[in-house]
Amino acid sequence: VLDLILSRVADFMEKAQRLKSRVKSAMIYPLTVLIVAFIILLALMKFVIPKFTEVLTDMLGSGTQLNIVTRTVLGVSDWIAYKYGWAVLIGVPIGTIFLLKIVRQFRVGRLILDTIKLKLPVIGPLSSKIAITRWTRTLGTLISAGVPILDAINVTRETAGNEVYAKMLGKVHDSIRQGETFADPLRQSKTVDLIVSNMVAVGEETGDLDKMLLKVADNYDEQVDVLVASLMSLLEPVMIVVLGGIVMTIVLAIFLPMIQVISGLSASAT
Fold it and tell me: CA 60 to CA 236: how far, in whole Å?
């Protein structure tokens, strides 16, 4: 029996690792592009735009009224270059990551952060499906290997990877210990789709709870693949539009004053 349990757990861990690797590999490309773009834009704002400001001041004079695009870009550049805005832009993300790591050391902090994460527009559904895949596969594997259901739920709760679902599994554990059903706490928690709680209810009634849980895990595993692929196809055009908009704004900020200078010279010549 021990060998069977170890074999099932090893198989689950392999599948969980593959799922985690797929999600990480899908996020490497957009994160790399965003980091490189951020560094380039920061360098432009700190080193290039201030030089352009000096040239523009010499050409137009300090009292000339500039267009709103140029004023905005020059203002941002001045904040980054001379008012240590670059330190804020670099320090805030690093400080936020450090603070989140500290908060996640506490169960209440993890619960708050996981609740917020599940409510985010795109990340929320993906995180939810990954968490459901994880706990259903863990619990199904342990039950099919002969582990008592209460012990299996305790193990699953500690390895759920999401505090919202760990809290839900705690309610499931209490419900079963009191002689009630598995499915009712799932429906009341509203952390899983109705199909999951219905399949769990069917599994309880037929005595195939482990098989139903593993079917849910396989189904959500496929949904994660589809969602990651959709997310990747959505991120690419969004990044192109956003980065293109930033570049266009900088180009307009540079060329609009040039047009103003040329118009002024033409007017004075006539």
Answer: 40
